[in-house]
Amino acid sequence: MTSVALDVDSVRADFPILKQQIHGRPLVYLDSGASAQKPEVVTQAMSDYYRRDHSNVHRGVHTLSQRATAAYETVREKVCTLLNAARTSEIIYVSGTTAAINLVAQTYGRANLSPGSEILVTEMEHHANIVPWQIACELSGATLKVVPFHDNGVLDLDQYRTMLSDNTRIVAVTHISNTLGTINPMAEMIRLAHDAGAVVLVDGAQAVPHMEVDVQALDCDFYAFSGHKLYGPTGFGILYGKESLLEAMPPWQGGGDMIKQVRFAQTTYNDLPYKFEAGTPHIAGAVGLGAAIDYVSGHGLSQIAAHERALLDYAQAQASAVSGLQVFGTAPDKAAVLSFELDGIHAHDVGTVLDHEGVAVRAGHHCAMPVMEHFGVAATVRASFGMYNNYDDVDALFAGIARTKDLMSA
């Protein structure tokens, strides 16, 4: 079959926010790695829910509650299909990737870690996949070990193999680095971890919007992602977990909907997935995520990935021609992230000038301070591309970089 290229002009028309001007210039949004913009179908779906169907889920026999519950649970089926999970009971609704990782650290971690246990993370992790494991180590007496990466952003797999041991209980690794764009070889890493007797949690926040993910093919034990990076709403995300592990884990929070029966003597917890979903959930968030999944699935994740890779190649070619510009993260297998610094110019100054040119980028440590320490820099500028970006956006970025150099050298 011949793959149909992504119709970027049509996609851009679906995102009303892109029609505005910033400081008198058309908005060029290159910060999708932090949070992607939302197509109108997502905001409309959430608005329709609030205007027509809002009620609490799983609690009422009246029509509104039944409609809200049906919409809410239909999204679980869509996520199951998106990730190719075996069953919907393995799909846990959370507030985002951070909450998902904390849930695993505080449930599976608390039950399975003890003095002498080891947790492996990598040097390229987001803080959300570092700090929860540090807390778990403090509570359990386990030890956190860090797998380094090479200067080109490629993980040191030899070190990873060496650091795995009989004491390794958990491997927590990002699928795609939010700062370097590196796509880690997850299937191989998961196989090696399982051979060592460890379970694997994958931070998929940067992967799910940009590539097809099959949790059964990967054979990961846990997989987490956030809706807002997948063109959906903030405050809603997903934890996938293998049913056997989730069944054995204690709940993280207590309250409504995660119980079957409550007595002062003893409480009986609900079945999966509800055992981990205490309290009134972000129902509109689920509806919005469902609309976002339909949207990206309709365009095709493989087509989106190919388009973003072409943009990255175009941007990297331009970057190589700019004197004094250093790119961080040059792995051969990487997602559409361009992190860089301009010699002698602070990242925040670059970001400020670019903003006045209408170009939105991220400037800072990107919640990945160990990556900054690896390269001996305080901050970088990060341009991260989404399905709505085009070659004109890349040209605007580098015109802004040229403007920055002119201003700062004057």
Helix and strand topology:
Elements: H1 8-13, E1 21-22, E2 25-26, E3 28-29, H2 40-53, H3 63-83, E4 91-94, H4 97-112, E5 118-122, H5 131-140, E6 143-147, H6 157-163, E7 168-174, H7 186-195, E8 199-203, H8 215-218, E9 222-226, E10 237-241, H9 243-248, E11 259-262, E12 267-269, H10 283-299, H11 301-319, E13 325-328, E14 337-342, H12 347-356, E15 359-360, E16 362-364, H13 369-375, E17 380-384, H14 391-409
Parallel strand pairs: 3-15, 5-6, 5-7, 7-8, 8-9
Antiparallel strand pairs: 1-2, 4-10, 9-10, 11-12, 13-14, 14-17, 16-17
Helix pairs in contact: 2-10, 3-10, 4-5, 11-14, 12-14
Brief digest:
With 410 residues, the chain is an alpha/beta fold. The chain contains 14 helices and 17 strands. α5 links the parallel β5 (118-122) and β6 (143-147).
Question: Could you please describe the fold and organization of this structure?
Answer:
With 410 residues, the protein is α/β, with parallel strands linked by helices. The chain contains 14 helices and 17 strands. The protein has helices at 8-13, 40-53, 63-83, 97-112, 131-140, 157-163, 186-195, 215-218, 243-248, 283-299, 301-319, 347-356, 369-375, 391-409, and strands spanning 21-22, 25-26, 28-29, 91-94, 118-122, 143-147, 168-174, 199-203, 222-226, 237-241, 259-262, 267-269, 325-328, 337-342, 359-360, 362-364, 380-384. A hairpin with an 8-residue loop joins strand 13 and strand 14 (337-342). The longest helix is centred in the first third of the chain and has 21 residues, at 63-83. It is globular and about 75 Å long.
